[in-house]
Amino acid sequence: MPVAPVIVYLTGYRQHAGKTVTSLASSRSSAACSIPSTIGYIKPVGQEVSTLRDGMQVDKDVQLLSVFSSLPGFEPRHLSPVRFTSGFTRNYLESGDQEALTRTLERRILESVASLADKKVIIAEGSGHPGVGAIAGLSNADVGNLLNAEIVFLSEGGIGRAIDTLEVYMSYFLHKRCRVRGVIFNKLIPEKIRTLQRYLTEDALNSRFPGFGGNLSILGFIPTVQDLPQPSIDLVLNSLRHAEAIGDPRHPTWQRPCRTIRVISLPAQFLRPAQAIRRRDLVVISANSSPRIRSILSYHRQLGATRGIGGLVLTCDEGESLAPELRAEIIGAGLPTVLIRGDSAATEARLFGLYESTKLQVYDVDKVREVEELFSASFDVYRFLDVFGIE
């Protein structure tokens, strides 16, 4: 009889804990050390959707993995069985038979897993923190148990912060009787990794959480990826409401990661762009300040197209407009620019929120390469394969 695949379920301490990046890196690393056709991936429960060319909707992370995982026979339409889109919770609560609906959703998940029955290992990516989906009986812990999966938990760094986080979620997993087998400490400050490794050991974790039978393994101490949380101006355009592109958003410069947000409030006579702005910064300024904008455009030209400013965000109150001649100058300078209806303070807050929640995009080839290099040095793929009995 064929042996059922090992299902490794990746979950983390919050949304944007690094589950997608880890799913990508672990699947590619496993495929490089094993037979690629024996490695599978699934996102049992998703929250954000993308539309494929044939019009079918799948979770965004499934689409991303289809582009970058290099796994043979990757069929996105089979790998995103349940999606908690807008209105799902209300519809679930108002359904006539919630238990029957949960059973239906569980069957969808199991059917998707069955489509991967020829695999030796399936990387299953969780959604949000471990309790997400509990309203429908499909929390990460519930789905892990449904799949009889081995759970790997992504924890934040910092000795005290990591232990505090683990204390909460390991207790939850124990309550749910989940099989947690591994921990990955992610998004770490590189200079502090040696200290973390000294105190956050497998012996320390198994001593603190004996309910897992001494089976907790540490699979990596992963430093933060420099460009990963930095959005492109294209992502700014598509993430913020009332946003208008000034220029051609199809140009490759719109897809480069932007670095620090620089809000320009100095009067034109005091503004020195070379002192206030660095290459690839995201500059926020009022659209009605033509002298300052022209000064910034001049500085961008001096830096050059490939080394210039990352993007320009112009804020514009209702009833105001960008002068046509200034619009033409911006387009001529080749500086990716987005016009936002709203004041600078509100726009700045929305942009900082975007920096906190930026995910990989299908065009982020350089970011994926950086992720691969980083994981190859910090993720113990051979220990990963050994822990889960993958040959």
TrEMBL record:
Taxonomy, superkingdom: Eukaryota
Transferase as UniProt keyword: no
Pfam families: AAA_26
Gene3D superfamilies: P-loop containing nucleotide triphosphate hydrolases (3.40.50.300)
Residues forming coiled coils: none
Keywords: Glutamine amidotransferase
Family annotation (InterPro entries): P-loop_NTPase (IPR027417)
Name listed for the protein in its UniProt record: DRTGG domain-containing protein
Organism in which the protein naturally occurs: Geodia barretti (Barrett's horny sponge)
Lineage: Eukaryota, Metazoa, Porifera, Demospongiae, Heteroscleromorpha
